[in-house]
Every structure is written in C-alpha cells, then in structure tokens.
Amino acid sequence: MRIDMHSHSTASDGTEPPGTVMRRAHQAGLDVVALTDHDTVAGLPDAAAALPAGLTLVPGMELSCLREGTSVHLLAYLFDPADPALTAECARIRESRETRGRRMVEKLIELGVPVTWEQVRSLAGDAPVGRPHIARAMVAAGTIDDPAQAFTDAWIAPGGRAHAQRYAPDPPAAIRMVRAAGGVPVLAHPRAGRRGQGMSDAQIAELAAAGLFGLEVDHPDHGPADREHLRGLAADLRLAVTGSSDDHGELSGHRLGRETTAPQVYERLLAEATGARPITAPPHRPAHPPAGPGPSGRDMPGVH
C-alpha cells in the first residue's frame, strides 16, 4: 500500500479543488490519501464525491497551534467533525486568520507593496486566508518572483516586517481536544524551519505525554539528519512515524506520493480512531470520475 497522510486543497491553501486532489492522488499510484486542510473539513464532501475506485480517503485536518509565539501544526485524523468543542475552536482560529490576514496586507501596503485585501480574499475564495494566499498576491503584484520568497524576514515569515500574530490553541490542549473528539493527532513537520517551527525534544515529549500519536518524520522539508534524529526520538517516546507529501498542488510542485506512511503505522492509527472512519468509493464508480464540482459541503453536519 502507498499511503500519503497530508495534502491540501482549495478548501485552505492548496491550488486545486478537493476532487482534483483525489484524482491526482489516484494517478500518483496512491492507495490511501488524507485530506488535511488548515482548520477546516469543508473540502471533505467534494473529495468523497470525486473519490476514484481503488482510493481510500482519510478525513483529516491540519490544526493550527501556537507555543510561545511559535507556529505548531497538528495533523488530526478521523475525529468526529460534529464535535462541538473542536468545531468552535476551528471557527475561532479561522476568524483570527482573517484578522491576521488583513493586518499583514496593511503592513505590506505600508512597505510599498501594491496588494489589496480584495485580491487576497479573491485568491482564497471560500477558504480561510493563509499566508500562501498573500504570497501569491505578492507574485501577482510583481513584488516577488516566487511565493517562497515571501516566507523570509523581509516579508511574512515569523518576525518578518509584514508578519502579524494570530490566535491558536496551545499544542497540548489541541491534542486533548482532538482525542476527545475521537481523533488521532500527529505532529506535522516538526523540523520544517521556514514554517517557524522547531520544537525541542523536551517540548515534543510534553506532547507525547498529552496524547500525541506520532511524528511526521518523512516530509519533503526534512533533511537526512532531521529524519534520523526524529526517528530516534519517536522510538524513545513510543510515537509512530509517519510520512507525507504535504502537497499544496502547484504551490508545492505537485508532489503527492513523494513521501509515504508505512501500512502498519496506518493500521495502528485506524485502531485508535473512534470519531470517524476512512471513506472508499462505491465499487461501480469509475477510476477517473469526470471533472467538475461535487456537491456542496455547506449542509453536511459538522462541516465548518
């Protein structure tokens, strides 16, 4: 089995609709893919509607957290999407994203960058505004040549000239919330420097004590030394090791399936989840369903 446990769609900061992500996952030879948009499950209905035969969808989310001003991302899998506490927390995070986004655009304008909030909001569509949307607006304005150039101290990296802080829960509290909703939490890209992360071993041990299931070790932004260290730490803390592409479509170079999770780890994750189950396509569905919008998730209970 080829299993990719981290991907994004236009429901957050990916560049392709959920259905397209599912079709690309199938074309990449994946058997299992998790859709983990930032602080929302709004893309899951369309992903499920477009799911090709032979591909399993793991409902998930990448939950934003903060530890002492440092951004920490928590992958949450197979939780109950109607859980009241988790739903309310995600709504609070998304509202703070909007406020943060407006402030960052204001700072960019003060620095002479010809972007507007309307442009950024248009790029985000119905999704929560994220820094990648702002980076894309900066490219469109001609200020930078590539979105990656926005994530520096000169612009919108943490501590950068146009960066602004937002609300997010403390990681141990977020882990307990995911567990209470029947979900399974994994720490995303613990050593991906450009994201402002870099939790110490002691901090990761604290998360393990709070109920963390695993570490996303095999990630495109992790070098060999980081992977070796994190594997040893996971073994010491009895945490699972996952691998994922963290695909964002065009923004990340279409890398679905570049990193994968071992089948035995996936089985352990399924055994711990009580909030939801993976989704498989009906047997009669074609392997490549026609392109087009799926049914809206707005009326699906728990979609937020």
Automatic annotation (TrEMBL):
Protein name: Polymerase/histidinol phosphatase N-terminal domain-containing protein
Annotated GO MF terms: 5'-3' DNA exonuclease activity; 5'-3' RNA exonuclease activity
Membrane-traversing stretches: none
Domain spans labelled Polymerase/histidinol phosphatase N-terminal: 3-67
Start-end of Pro residues biased regions: 280-293
PANTHER family documented for this protein: EXONUCLEASE, POLYMERASE_HISTIDINOL PHOSPHATASE N-TERMINAL DOMAIN-CONTAINING PROTEIN
Cleaved signal peptide residues: none
Region (Disordered), start-end ranges: 1-21, 277-304
Pfam families (alphabetical): PHP (PF02811)
Annotated source species: Thermomonospora echinospora
